[in-house]
Predict the structure.
Amino acid sequence: MESGRPDEESNIALKEKIREDWKELREDLKEPQKTQLWKSVFRVKHERADPRTRALGVLTNVFLHLHPARVNRDAVRYSYTWGMGGITFYLFIVLTFTGVLLMFYYHPTKIQAFRDILFLEHDVPFGKLLRNMHRWAAHLMIITLWLHMFRVVLTGSYKKPREFNWCVGVILLVLTLLLSFTGYLLPDDQLGFWAVTVGTNMARATPLLGSEGPLGPQLGMTPFNDVRFALLGGSIVDANALLRAYIWHCIAIPLIAGVFMGVHFWRVRKDGGISGPAPVMLESEIKPVLRR
Amino acid sequence: MDWAQLWSIVSLPDNIPIVALAVLVPFYTWYGLRQAQATDRLITQLESNPSLAQTHHRKIYPFQPGWARELQVWPYLLRVEFLAAIIVTLVLMIWSITLNAPLEEPANPNHTMNPSKAPWYFVGLQEMLVYFDPWFAGVVLPTLIVVGLMVFPYIDTNPLGVGYYTIKQRLIPLLGFGVGFLLWILLIFIGTFVRGPGWMWFWPGQTWDHTRVMYEVNHNLSDLLRITNPWLGAIAGVAAIGLFYTVTGWGIHKLVTRTRFDRKIYGRTNLLQYLTFQFFAITILVGLPAKMLLRLLFNIKYVLITPWFNI
Ligand code: HEM
């Protein structure tokens, strides 16, 4: 029984320790920014709102680092860019998100595709909203894309040194339209089927490579080996076409478009940031052309 | 006036974006041109007053000496972006709750949809099928449009007008783009609101008649010229197209060398750049509407007929 004393001592020490830890924990909760956990996630301290901290806050964040730390004071005005490039990108993200959710419910086969859409509309919780959002975000993306282009034209932003980024943009335009087109077939309803039939019938008429195109037959093109056959995986819009549209729509084109968007944003920065609002240049200041 | 017919087209869920387009495009055109006007006033002012041009900050926005020329991205840009994301999300949510995506009957190859229309952003191309054969409307023309867009920055040799809205310094390229954009939108409107069963022309508000048969006789240019020999017909076709390119090219040349400033920019353009510009301007901006008018007004189908292709 005597030997109980050291036990009591260690009990007291333990209680003391717990009390201290508890106090520390409460302080941590009051100021979570001071904890090791927090610091390991967020590298920059934000207790002061000075320009340096704010710049670092942007530059050390993987989602924000596409931005510079500072921009032209007038470039944040809505009236200059109309925000259309950014909105287009945001819609692409929305489409990726809703698209992945739709993929959980969709089988690209002739037997199931149409029923899956009905199932989404009538049984899946919020399935109808999901499908609607994917559909309308796609339409909206095309509208904002055109307005983005329109703005770039009106502000002359395609000119030197941004010529190449304009070309990257044109490729993005084509890819976006192709995304819409391949997606149109997926519900496997009359609307998509006939739109894609009309669309791919034109491929039959491709010069040289189509079975009904100029000089196609002379080069040995038939309905069973021309470009249309390659697009559809057959000579009619059927199961193979559905599968091909699905793979292009859900995997290939989004990946390619994602890469081009990366290049596009990278080039916006490397070409000297957003083009304006720049100080106007006068006719008298035009420099003579330099011929190499 | 068949309002029900008109409404049944306008209220198709897939056509709502066109209605949005009809509001947004004029709005943003006005929004951009308004800033262009302000800039143009500033340019005129600075050009007439060189000493002011030395000291002025040269923007239409207010600026005081001592103000920072750059702003922190956080918070000044990011807050705008977050706000935009929220607004877009809200608009999309409301749109998706109130309007359902269309779903027709299951695909049925034995039952043709009439009219069978592409989604609105492709309807322009589909409408082109009326005026050109599929190899041209569906393959060559889209390629030309894409290539034409890509070469644009390389043939616009005017160094002025980068990074601000202006009309004064960039009238010609804006005109070119404007015509192209308007043409595209016009084609969408025709394809969506005018074309009915059989892709026939029904004025907006005219009842779609599925039994209508058109006794339209299409002519080719060689018929009009009463040429029966196919070789002579082809030669006449090539001559007509050559004449069209020459006359239009001459007209465009007059247009782009009209003012002293335009001639200065023309002087900076090399031959390859200029010929590329002329080719796209004649073919797409003038040729396309010209062929449309030939067809719509005079029922001319082909200008050039060869054994391999017809235009
Ligand atoms: C998926 C499509 C696209 C996305 C997500 C996208 C996104 C962006 C973003 C976020 C910017 C920054 C400025 C702004 O928001 O306006 C930008 C700039 C730019 N974009 Fe795009 N864009 C796309 C398509 C296009 C297209 C179709 C074109 C032209 C044909 C284009 C040409 C340009 C150019 C030249 C700039 C630089 C503008 C400047 O510095 O003022 N982009 N883009």
User: Anything to note?
Assistant: The longest strand of chain A covers residues 70-72.
